[in-house]
């Protein structure tokens, strides 16, 4: 495999697209805006899924499954919600094809037209709240703590693999509660579940905050978010958790009888992360040689490659390598021994570097003599000779070190890219440097819109526990009580 | 919870529908033919998924994800395939809604019409083979052993929860091989993966066989299947594995260069099981009191219920019950302690009986005195008093016994419902009794059609390793070399 990546500094966006395809993560399909997630990419997504699912269940949630299709009439019941999604949805209008009477192939059978069109879910609040109406009668039925792993469709005009595709995979939590306080706590809790997962497992530092009204989810009273910063200085929203108030309960008439016998509307939340996380993962750690994966999410954490000139040498190496393989496997390390004879060692080195395997162990005849192996780190590209008997412990510790180092490196890079500015000129300069810009804003949607039109930057979030500080808006000069974080974003 | 199930002998179909809803497995949605899988039902599906996924990976398969939508032109490339699915598919024709200018709500924006319609996948052979074209160049790229967990849509006119719904969840394996022999072995292997899983985990006996031409998958050269028998004497196809020959490779031009440099078409298989398995599970083991679950798939294997008259008693019981709970949990038993004070013990007994929890442990003040607990089996409804210190071992063994007993009971029932007949009259009588009917058939599609029209019975399968035996067709009297299994089926 020849390395064929455009260097990041030449064209970051091109580097990203090439890497996604060359590292076998995903590919464009013949279907506009829809991606194919290839086995290697999907294996990373499965690691993400499995850990998140575990954390959801640990916090009391259960999974369920709701229909792919939403009748148009349900979809339009919550006014802000339909406004937010109507312009980008796939619509099913017919349910049968027939042979083309005028040529080859098939055509839509016009006699099989649906009475009511079905929307392919862009998100499932409407179908789910329509269901919760039947699930909730009494306070004893609350809370409902449900999550769904699903595909959703939002018709995007400009798509990019993982970052913005017409169909994507995600999870969506939808909860219903007896009190406002409980719903707010739930939304806040899930923000932390996301934040902790992204930092601990993906090794990506996050800023937790709330969205301004402009960037809030269609139908929510408050949107909590985790914001991350990519290597090119653009921000990426990695997850959101919404406090829905009673909006959907009122739209779908979901009420419960409380302990005193009174009928009340329930309070709701929804929260989700998607295959977009894969984009964040790639753009946080990878380099010009390819993908760099944090060990906790790497489908292959360690690859063993034999270096040999002939079959006799390979047979000798096999014995030692297979012992290393089973020792590592026994301590739950995801290890692969690649002794295929259809590819040369150099090709394999490149291949696993491109695919971001955290540790490579190479072993050749000279290592055998010395009783050592060469251990290479993908993140730093450094190599070390390690005595075979020390290998298991060494590898175990190294995986943990790499995980920590990746986070630390990403955090230093992110922290050094938060610019605090007080004037419009320095605001624009800082945006051009890339990163988050911490600035005063007068709190109005109009000003945020004007800033967006001038600079393409949006308010990424108002950090949780933001310091209160008097100041003046960088654009209007009006009074402000706190700084917010602006950035250009994916 | 009042028990409110129609007895099976009165109306089996009604019993089924009521049970699915009352046991919180699934519900009808506001969307025609689409179901909601409720958390308890979905938890069983997750157990099925997790074990199957493990078995797929153990046999060398990897997961991937392909688009939900298939362009109409791809869809029609394999002639038999489009013929088989064209009449039941959901078709996306537009990608935007707009505000209704003449009233409230939203309408389809006619200016946002797709140039080419998209079919919501009823199965993914076409989109996947269109992709494999890009994945395969050389023999080194083979085999491809890919599986996908996904939702699919087949527009059904008459739907029943789990058994036949417009949208359902499933997995679909799609493999590509260098040789015919390898592809046939793969199809055959996956049949055994399914058969072993259904017998070992679902405790449902299966008959492994091949389909007649009439019942074969649209586009396959051979369809292998596992057939099961429900309590009401109707058969249910629980899984299929197809040898596709080179049909899709030719339709999508998927060729590879072999070791000698020759270009050849690849050989394919596909195989799938779906949420229909939930229907088979319910209709094999359950009774007039509700669901009966085999321990290996039960989300809750053991429930502990305290019997008390006042809070002091509950506090005493809590101490002992929580100890039992953690002891069982430590030996990996899925156990729940239900000490809610919002429901009475009798209600709880009914609830967990309805939900098929394999073992109930009840503990009251008199048990405390004696140092025992009352252990009840869901399958036999028998009860026994067990000394507390013996409980963990007793429960562990009982779970294993229940799993075996359920299979044995289902197998005896199935075996006693295989009727061997040699005349048309006895054939019709046997069908009316219910069960499989083993009879000679002349091997033609016409005869199979005529039998189906007369009796609603189809050939469920020609068993693997079927005994060769000369005879005459029950309908036509023409010569036959082996018996096949007929049945009325779900």
Give the topology.
Two copies of one chain form a homodimer.
Chain A: H1 12-22, E1 26-28, E2 35-37, H2 39-58, E3 62-63, E4 69-71, H3 72-75, H4 79-85, E5 91-94, E6 97-99, E7 106-108, E8 113-120, H5 125-135, E9 144-153, E10 167-177, H6 180-200, E11 207-210, E12 222-229, E13 235-245, H7 247-251, E14 255-257, E15 263-265, E16 267-274, H8 276-285, E17 302-306, H9 311-330, E18 335-337, H10 345-354, E19 359-363, H11 365-370, E20 372-377, E21 383-387, H12 391-415, E22 418-420, H13 424-433, E23 436-440, H14 445-455, E24 458-463, E25 468-472, E26 479-487
Parallel strand pairs in A: 3-9, 17-18, 17-19, 22-23
Antiparallel strand pairs in A: 1-2, 4-8, 5-8, 6-7, 9-10, 10-16, 11-12, 11-24, 12-13, 13-16, 14-15, 19-20, 20-21, 23-26, 24-26, 25-26
Helix pairs in contact in A: 2-6
Number of helices of chain A: 14
Rg of chain A, Cα atoms, Å: 26 Å
**Cα end-to-end separation of chain A:** 30 Å
Beta strand % of chain A = 25-35%
| Unreliable runs of chain A | none
| Backbone shape of chain A | globular
Biggest β-sheet description of chain A: 12 strands, mixed
Oligomer: homodimer
Fraction of helical residues of chain A = 25-40%
Number of E-type strands of chain A: 26
Can you walk me through this structure?
The structure is a homodimer of 490-residue chains. With 490 residues, chain A is α+β, with helices and mostly antiparallel strands. Helix content of chain A is 35%, strand content 28%. The first copy, chain A, contains 14 helices and 26 strands. In chain A, a hairpin with a 6-residue loop joins β25 (468-472) and β26 (479-487). In chain A, α2 crosses α6 (180-200). The mean pLDDT of chain A is 96. At the A-B interface, β2, α2, β3, β4 and α3 of A face β2, α2, β3, β4 and α3 of B.
């Amino acid at each position: 495999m020849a390395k064929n990546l455009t260097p990041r500094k030449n064209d970051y966006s091109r580097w990203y697209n090439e890497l996604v395809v060359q590292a076998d993560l995903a590919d464009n399909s013949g279907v506009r805006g829809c991606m194919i997630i290839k086995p290697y990419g999907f294996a990373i997504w499965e690691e993400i899924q499995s850990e998140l699912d575990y954390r959801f269940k640990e916090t009391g949630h259960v999974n369920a499954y709701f229909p792919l299709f939403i009748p148009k009439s349900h979809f339009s019941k919550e006014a802000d919600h339909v406004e937010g999604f109507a312009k980008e949805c796939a619509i099913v209008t017919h349910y049968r094809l027939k042979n083309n009477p005028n040529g080859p192939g098939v055509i839509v059978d016009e006699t099989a037209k649906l009475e009511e069109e079905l929307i392919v879910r862009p998100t499932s609040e409407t179908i789910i709240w329509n269901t919760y109406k039947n699930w909730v009668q009494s306070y004893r039925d609350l809370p409902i703590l449900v999550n769904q792993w699903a595909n959703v469709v939002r018709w995007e005009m400009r798509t990019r693999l993982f970052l913005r595709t017409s169909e994507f995979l995600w999870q969506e939590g939808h909860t219903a509660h007896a009190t406002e306080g409980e719903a707010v706590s739930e939304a806040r809790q899930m923000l932390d579940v996301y934040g902790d997962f992204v930092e601990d497992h993906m090794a990506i530092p996050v800023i937790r905050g709330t969205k301004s009204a402009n960037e809030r989810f269609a139908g929510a009273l408050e949107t909590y978010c985790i914001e991350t910063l990519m290597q090119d200085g653009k921000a990426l929203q990695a997850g959101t958790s919404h406090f829905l108030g009673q909006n959907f309960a009122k739209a779908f008439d979901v009420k419960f009888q409380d302990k005193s016998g009174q009928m009340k509307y329930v309070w709701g939340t929804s929260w989700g992360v998607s295959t977009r996380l894969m984009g964040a993962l790639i753009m946080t750690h990878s380099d010009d040689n390819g993908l760099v994966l944090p060990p906790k999410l790497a489908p292959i954490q360690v690859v063993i490659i034999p270096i040999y000139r002939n079959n006799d040498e390979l047979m000798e190496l096999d014995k030692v390598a297979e012992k290393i393989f089973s020792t590592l496997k026994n301590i739950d390390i995801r290890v692969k021994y690649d002794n295929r004879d259809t590819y040369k060692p150099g090709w394999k080195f490149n291949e696993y570097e491109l695919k971001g395997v955290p540790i490579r162990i190479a072993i050749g005849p000279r290592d055998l003599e010395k009783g050592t192996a060469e251990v290479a780190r993908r993140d730093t590209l450094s190599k070390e000779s390690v005595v075979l008997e020390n290998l298991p412990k060494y590898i175990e510790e190294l995986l943990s070190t790499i995980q920590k180092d990746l986070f630390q490196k990403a955090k230093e890079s992110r922290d050094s890219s938060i610019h605090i500015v007080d004037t419009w000129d320095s605001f624009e300069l800082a945006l051009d440097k890339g990163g988050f810009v911490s600035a005063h804003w007068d709190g109005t949607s109009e000003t945020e819109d004007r800033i967006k039109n001038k600079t393409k930057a949006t308010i990424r979030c108002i950090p949780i526990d933001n310091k209160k500080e008097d100041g003046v808006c960088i654009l209007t000069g009006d009074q402000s009580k706190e700084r917010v974080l602006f950035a250009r974003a994916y």
